[in-house]
Automatic annotation (TrEMBL):
<keyword id="KW-0964">Secreted</keyword>
<feature type="region of interest" description="Disordered">
    <location>
        <begin position="32"/>
        <end position="95"/>
    </location>
</feature>
<feature type="signal peptide">
    <location>
        <begin position="1"/>
        <end position="25"/>
    </location>
</feature>
<dbReference type="InterPro" id="IPR033764">
    <property type="entry name" value="Sdr_B"/>
</dbReference>
<keyword id="KW-0732">Signal</keyword>
<keyword id="KW-0472">Membrane</keyword>
<feature type="compositionally biased region" description="Low complexity">
    <location>
        <begin position="516"/>
        <end position="540"/>
    </location>
</feature>
<dbReference type="InterPro" id="IPR052660">
    <property type="entry name" value="Erythrocyte_Invasion_ImmMod"/>
</dbReference>
<feature type="domain" description="SD-repeat containing protein B">
    <location>
        <begin position="437"/>
        <end position="523"/>
    </location>
</feature>
<feature type="compositionally biased region" description="Low complexity">
    <location>
        <begin position="33"/>
        <end position="88"/>
    </location>
</feature>
<dbReference type="GO" id="GO:0005576">
    <property type="term" value="C:extracellular region"/>
</dbReference>
<dbReference type="GO" id="GO:0005975">
    <property type="term" value="P:carbohydrate metabolic process"/>
</dbReference>
<feature type="compositionally biased region" description="Polar residues">
    <location>
        <begin position="546"/>
        <end position="557"/>
    </location>
</feature>
<feature type="region of interest" description="Disordered">
    <location>
        <begin position="494"/>
        <end position="559"/>
    </location>
</feature>
<feature type="domain" description="SD-repeat containing protein B">
    <location>
        <begin position="209"/>
        <end position="274"/>
    </location>
</feature>
<dbReference type="InterPro" id="IPR013783">
    <property type="entry name" value="Ig-like_fold"/>
</dbReference>
<dbReference type="Pfam" id="PF17210">
    <property type="entry name" value="SdrD_B"/>
</dbReference>
Length: 606
């Protein structure tokens, strides 16, 4: 009786151990998926929703009677136009009085062209109109136009009222007539009313008589003995445009181009050493034009510039105080120094509105005396988009811009400040293009760290999923540096710094490549060590999955099956270690069960 009981206890113990092990193993398998993103961020965040503007793409349609349209852009809008042939609408727009005409019936080929487009509402109700003009054989400009371009608000015309639009331009071919086309869109209807005006062109020729000099005595004018010899002068332009054979300056700096087609010419020079020249075109009409070109030292040769903000953090609308420091180490005064800020056009940075920049803004200028330092204060409101991006900043080039010297400017540092409050979510994938043919595969199992660009502190990390995807949520909007742990690095074309705006930031794919001996010893900006464990473990063979890109192909991709020293945190979410522990526990339980069985048999034998 007791032996039978012992056997039952042994058998039951083994079964219980196996069942218990099975349950725990199932729990471990269920936990095998990575837990996702770990974010270290301020305890309180506020979600800010914003809609940012974007360039407008306009597709216009026309009836078959409308001439081919031409893409037209202005200084106030970015647009493109595509012409298609469609059936006219059932209710075409009311007829308007529309004229397009040049101011002269005939132009010499080197003349400046001008003209007008007049729109008159002949209907008995008000209408909103848009205008899309273009020119044939003439490069047009549209000074002081209202918001009448397609994609803008348009101009509202009451019955009987008119709007007159002025155009200017230059002739591109002396042997062809010029045409001004006006495409009128009424109340955003698909049908277009058109008008055109033409003028004839008379080919003419002219000459350029010039002098190149360096103002050695600093009196702002050419003096005998200041001419620059042996400078090669090349000009490109005319109607039609062409590059003419170069001319070389004589011992007094003189040069000449004779009997050349009229038009606007852009000069270029070689043999100036480190000197720079202004970006000023030469306009040749039907006679000789005199030009005197001053070559100067680069402003950056002697001017050092820096900018500083008065705070590390702002709110949208705050007035940022900017201190500009200019130091002239040269022997001559630097006059007419102005600032050109935010050249990249980032809407969240300072430098868009220069009203508070005093004499550093266009049309003014600061003089920096020789061997002296000048400090200039500037103010500017923090723009609304700074709240969307989570930061603002300022960096400027300083030079003699009003005199058209665009080269050799002094570039300052870039000062930044936080604009906290907005929260960002980010989604993307690590992708590998093995053959550089546009076919990519996702790279799974890679640890990705995000470092705050300003503080250089790691604020978030995650591990890419089976498709190479990653996601972060609850990030303060701002700029971050990306670093990978282990066997992968960013490609050379991939910037390690990214700016994440408030709200969703989808499609943030990151191009990567395997770490090689050469890249691992020369690049530390795109890879980082494990933050928690210095031990290394090779990952099992992987089969990268396809990313969202439609050109992805996983059948032919070959990735390293044993990545170089992938740090152990990459295995933290796999559940491999838990499975091993549970297996040992199961074996121990089984041994105990077997021991009880053997003991019962011995007792039975006795």
């Amino acid at each position: 009786m007791s032996h039978t009981l012992a056997r039952r206890i042994a058998a039951g113990s083994g079964a219980l151990a196996i069942a218990f092990t099975t349950v725990l193993a199932g729990m471990a398998a269920a936990d095998e998926t990575p837990t996702g993103t770990t974010v270290t961020s301020p305890s309180e965040t506020t979600t800010v929703t914003s809609t940012a503007g974007a360039p407008t793409t306009v597709t216009s349609t026309s009836t078959s009677s409308v001439p081919p349209s031409s893409t037209t852009s202005s200084s106030t809008t970015t647009s493109s136009s595509t012409t298609t042939t469609t059936t006219p609408p059932t209710n075409p727009p009311s007829q308007f009085g529309l004229t397009a005409a040049f101011d002269k019936a005939t132009y010499n080929s080197g003349d400046d062209v001008s003209g007008k487009i007049t729109i008159t509402n002949t209907d008995d109700v008000a209408h909103t109109v848009h205008m899309s003009p273009f020119g044939e054989n003439v490069d047009l400009a549209f000074p002081n136009w209202p918001a009448i371009w397609p994609g803008m608000a348009g101009v509202n015309l009451d019955p009987g009222s008119s709007v007159v639009l002025t155009v200017t331009g230059t002739i591109t071919d002396a042997h062809k007539s010029i045409t001004l086309w006006a495409n009128l869109i009424v109340d955003s209807k698909s049908a277009v009313q058109t008008a055109s005006g033409t003028a004839s062109v008379v080919p003419t020729t002219g000459s350029i008589d010039g002098t190149m000099y360096f103002d050695a005595n600093g009196n702002g004018q050419y003096d005998p003995g200041e001419g620059l010899p042996d400078v090669q002068v090349t000009i490109t332009g005319g109607a039609p445009s062409q590059t003419l054979p170069a001319q070389k300056t004589d011992k007094d700096g003189h040069f000449a181009f004779t009997d050349i087609p009229s038009g606007s010419y852009t000069p270029s020079f070689s043999g100036l050493g480190g000197l720079v020249t202004p970006w000023t075109p030469w306009q040749v009409k039907d006679q000789s034009v005199r030009v005197t070109e001053e070559a100067r030292h680069k402003v950056s040769d002697t001017l050092a510039a820096s900018v500083k903000l008065n705070a590390d953090s702002y709110a949208v609308g705050d007035t940022a105080q900017i201190t500009v420091t200019l130091t002239n180490s040269g022997d001559h005064d630097l006059a007419g120094i102005t600032a050109w800020c935010d050249r990249s056009g980032d809407s969240h940075d300072l430098g868009w509105n220069m009203a508070g920049w005093g004499d550093l803004r266009d049309g003014h200028g600061v003089t920096v005396p020789a061997h002296e330092t000048v400090t200039v204060g500037a103010t500017e409101a923090v723009p609304a988009d700074a709240g969307v991006y989570g930061s603002t900043g300022v960096g400027c080039d300083f030079g003699q811009f009003d005199a058209q010297y665009q080269d050799g400017t002094a570039r300052s540092n870039f000062a930044t400040a936080q604009v906290p409050g907005a929260v960002a979510s980010v989604e993307g994938a690590l992708v590998y293009d093995k053959d550089n043919d546009g076919h990519t595969v996702g790279v799974p199992g890679v640890t990705l760290n995000l470092t705050d660009h300003a503080s250089q502190k790691v604020v978030a990390h995650t591990i890419t999923d089976a498709d190479g995807g990653y996601a972060f949520s609850g990030l303060p909007a701002g700029s971050y540096d990306i670093a990978l742990v282990g066997a992968w690095r960013l490609t050379d074309s991939e910037s390690p710094t990214r700016s994440f705006r408030a709200g969703d930031n989808p499609g943030q794919d990151i191009s990567v490549e395997p770490v090689t001996t050469s890249s691992s010893t020369t690049d530390s900006s795109t890879t980082s060590p494990s933050p928690t464990d210095s031990s290394t473990t090779s990952l099992p063979p992987t089969s990268p999955s396809m990313t969202n890109a439609p050109t992805t192909d996983t059948s032919t991709a070959e990735l390293p099956v044993t990545p170089v020293d992938q740090a152990s945190p990459a295995l933290a979410y796999t559940g491999v270690a838990d499975a091993a522990s549970l297996t040992m526990a199961a074996i121990g339980a089984l041994v105990c069960g077997v021991s009880l069985v053997l003991m019962s048999r011995r007792r039975h034998a006795h």
